[in-house]
Amino acid sequence: MAQLRGIVNYVLTAVLALLLVWGFSPLSTGVRGGLTVFILLFSIPGIVYGWRQYGQLRSAHSEHEVPLPPESFSGPVVLVCGDNAPLFAGRSGSCESSQGWYLSVQSPEHYIALVRQIAAQRPGLLMRVSVMLALTPERHTDEDALKHILLSWRRVVTQSRRWLSGVPPFWLCCWLNSPQCNEAVRWFIRTPQDAEVQSATGLDDFAPFSSQESPARHFHLTHAVWLDNLLGWLKKVQGDTEHHALPVFFALRVVCFTSSAVCENNLWQRHIIAQTTLSPAASVAPALLPFPDLALPFLSRRRALTAFQRTVGVSGLLCGIFIGMAMACSFINNQHLIRITNDHLMLYRQLSGNPAEPKILAQDQLRRDAQLLERWYQRGEPLSLSMGLYQGMRLIPPLQVAISDWGSPEKPKVTAPQTVRLDSMSLFDTGKWALKAGSTKVLIGALVNIKAKPGWLIVIAGHTDDVGDDKSNQLLSLKRAESVRDWMRDTGDVARKNS
After folding, report:
1. CB atoms within 10 A of CB 278
2. CA 460/CA 481 separation, integer angstroms
3. Across the chain, which distance is largest between two alpha carbons, in Å?
4. Going by C-beta distance under 8 Å and a sequence separation of 6 or more, which residues neighbour residue 349?
5. What is the chain's Cα-based Rg?
6. Are 164 and 129 in contact (CB under 8 A)?
7. Cα 413 to chain centroid, rounded
8. At residue 481, what are phi and psi to the nearest 5 degrees?
9. 31-59 pLDDT, tens per residue?
10. 0.70 exceeded by the pTM?
11. What residues form DSSP beta bridges with 80?
């Protein structure tokens, strides 16, 4: 589950970054492309790695699958490591008691797999998990090996905090044979806040007793001596391990006096002989050791955030950063829009309209700006100008006022050229270019029409009869045109430059 949450965070980061680059940033296309490549190079390896880790964890869970408490379980969940065989002999690795739920841990590797399984399948139970180190001193004969076991468990508990939302409560529970044979089970608890050992089975605290001889006084003194020696021995055994840089200490020490199987020449026996020269009495060992249910209420509740809460927090932080950067980009884009529109307005107002062409071009630009802003007003502004910072609406009225306060002058109408047709047969004889008699009336009518439109460029053109080859025909046509031009110039006072 942690790997899936990591994948979700990678995907969310990549999506928000790409949306920020292509939806809000005022950068050029080339820069956006470079940032896109960088984002993909950063996110894709993380997603692939997280997916592979998730696949490996799924296969590991299938190999070390342990029945877990239901998600609705409200009691403590205790991972029992160390000498847990006498607790689960004949039982399954998952056992529910009246006060809590105990899960058997066979090795440090199994512990990591079990913690991952809980984080993946029961994330709601993470705050209820504690780790109990079960210790039966009368089953150990090698002190160095025992120290190594304690150190290895402290180390693996420290490593598990990444899945358990912090270091879980780590507590010690010892089972010893009672100093008196066939005695009922006795529980004693010591917390870091208490200077004295408390009895969890109805006995008073171990305070000074009166000097009066009584069975109760003898009973108390016997257990007090036994506990004092046990705490001293535990301090000696774990003294070397406490100097290592591992931020894990026993949150609770629990001692149970009950019948337990022993080994010959065990550590506890050697310690008692060294202290008292007496050998502890042996008793008949039961099939199972009792669970420390009486100690569970003494465990402190954890206040750390769950993995789901951390994921929600990280996602919220990413979304908050995205919203902040998107608003900054939107503000920059809106300021750019305002600046460009104001520049167009200033340029338009600075032009006098003489000549009219520059101001007409500036007015057309204002019309395009107004049409764009009106379209955004009707259909919604683009994403890059959104986030509640859009300023285009207040730019529309100034543009409309500027467009309507000046009109371009009307262009003069251009009259299309008119053609006056002259019949060459009424002006010239066949093959001649000199005007014949009687042609004056036709020419005067044409000259009157031409003088009614002064300033026109007069073009005289035409073709002649086919009287020879092409060159002769062209020359005849040119001569006839010159004759008409000369007559019109001499008679109608038409300047030669216009002929």
Report:
1. 8
2. 6
3. 176
4. 402
5. 53
6. yes
7. 66
8. -65, -40
9. 989 999 999 998 888 888 877 776 766 66
10. no
11. 104, 132
